[in-house]
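Re: [help] complex structure
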Amino acid sequence: MSNPPESSIDHDPTVRAAIDRSLRHPVMFFFTSGAAWLAVAILLGIISSAKVHSPQFLGDCAWFTYGRVFAAHQSALLYGWGCQAAFGMMIWLMARLSRQECRNAGTILMAGHVWNFAISIGVIGILAGGGTGMPWMDMPSFAWIPMLLSYGAILIWSMVQFKVRPEGHTYISQWYLMAALIWFPWFFGSAHLLVHGFGGSPLGAAGVNAWYHSALLLLFFAPVGIGMAYYLVPKVTGRPVFNYSMSLLGFWTLAAIAPWAGLQKLTGAPIPNFLPYLGAFAGILFAMPAALAGINLLKTASSEMETVNLSPTLRFTIWGLIFLLVLGAASVVLNSPGVMKITQFTMSGYGYDLLAVYGFFSFIAFGSIYFIVPRITRREWLSRRLIKWHFFLSIYGIGAIIVVALFGGLMQGVGQEEYLQPWENAAGRAFPYAVLVTTAWSFLLLSNVFFFLHLTLMWLRLGRRSSHPTLLVTPHHSSPHGPEGDIDNVGSASAH
Amino acid sequence: MQDSQKPDLDESLNVTQSHDRAMREAAAVAREKHVDEGGREPLSLWVFGASAFILIFAGLALGNAGSFFNYNETVKSDYVRKTFDSGDNSGPPPGEALKIYMAKGEKIYGKCIGCHAPDGKGGGAYPALAGSEWALGETERFAMVVLNGLSGPTSTGKTYGVMPAQGIGMSDVDLAAVMTYVRNAFGNSKGDVVTKEMAAEAIKISEARANPGSPVTADELKADHLKDLPGDKLDPTTMIDPVTLEPVEAAAE
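Output below.
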């Protein structure tokens, strides 16, 4: 979107409001049920993490054995929260950037219910003992066909909107969104078909599974998160993207590199030698698109530090970008063959996944939810304190988990390498870190209960009726924009 | 002035009013800024530096792949450990002979627990091993009972029925370990080790019996087997290797 001619500026808010209204129900549905799934995922995360240091906890109940709870925790986090937050962001942003109202909100909402139903029975299936035992593809094989179908129904209209958009420039966010739209059915469909459909060799299935794991991160969550950040940061700061050609370079490096990653997880397995090292090569190179997008956007925001500090949207988004840079650095370290040898079978892989899914992607998702929801509900966020609680508990919680899982994984790996010592020693090294992870998950649960409540109140249209955004620093009663409900003061508030 | 007969086509909408309404109802939308992507700021040098660093690192990882598309070479030679390193670190640490034989024997005794009970007292329905004359006495007699089973009266003169033979599939190490264990557990403290060499002799003697395969009786034991097994005695404090059970050289300690 380049600067529109003067005459359309007055018209713009009406078009934007109409687009937002057309997508109100599906977007709010995805965000709210995503937040509820996030709380479920964190609860399961607490249980599974508690079992690492206190194995007897819930030990008599087959439904809550570690293998099942941990798999259910990951599935709920990825498909309940991550994918649904991504869907909400994608359909909204694609409609906005294509300047088209959504004409199929009912279909999308319906498909959203199918998706929720599929993952509900999938997670229950895991807890009942029907999991497949493949990381990130844990749900019983009956779940993936309804998931793929409802994915198609949710996002086909975004493709249609892109197709019928007014001609002109295609903004970088649309590049990322289109890529994610196309990549998801490619890797999701082919991986599930190869594993559940054709039933090849177990070694082949393990390889496909490892590739799928990295594809879901790098070919879906990464482009959606980066694409959303490319919209939010310039939008809220009002600054142009720092260097636009760098953003295109970042996109094409991601597109060229990410599909090759994944098989480094199988290093040491009886597969041709070049495959894991090619995977490690691509895994390390992911740091380049991550750094290009992260640095570009942080540079864009750095000229408006006050806005970053005031705006809930930017506060979360900027931290998501910082976590993206950390993720890039972690990709370089963890995928280098020397370190991989130590950490391959430790908790550091889990730390890396959480850094990507919670640190990078979810923070940008939280940022976009704080941006999108006031627009589609036409209410402002109720309480800056709830937002602050959400932010601080999240940042400390996830920071602790990431540091502990990456570093604790290294200690655990060093313990495992001492093969003359009993295995118990390696487990003992991981014990204090496991206790810390449980504590940090408890922080995150608290933080997301606040978030879910706040979001639910917004969906019930119980937000503030005001023209002033909810900012993070000044208390409402002494707003510099005038008393509450003063809606003639349009345009004065800029930092949201 | 509009014709009231015609449909309300134009001019009836007050643009200012409807605009105001849009502003009021959608304040968040109205205050949005335009996205402008047109930045052309120069890149910092350190971004190139970081990219070069990443590329070099990735290249090093790829270099480990060896010759490309060579399917014969599957696992990098130093990635998976195929054998123990040589030198002082090889294998589990040596220990005292009695302790190592006892530890092995405790596992094998698991087969005997069903009758002779974990405490070796037999529980009344089966003969006790704790304090048993035959278990603690001459080793050949004891070995014959373990290997072939027993019918008729035991050392106390009481008859319990037939003990089944335990020798099938039992190696010399197993026999030596379980005998050492019984002679030194449950309050027994004979303090000597039945070595695997002695046990190997016992198996030979057992196979050379007049009626191999049938349980021994008190009479046969008294007539043929009332002696210790041949073989050198082993000092129970000798340091031995827990895998091979061979004494370790003093130099290796």
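Chain B touches chain A through 54 residues (CB under 8 Å).
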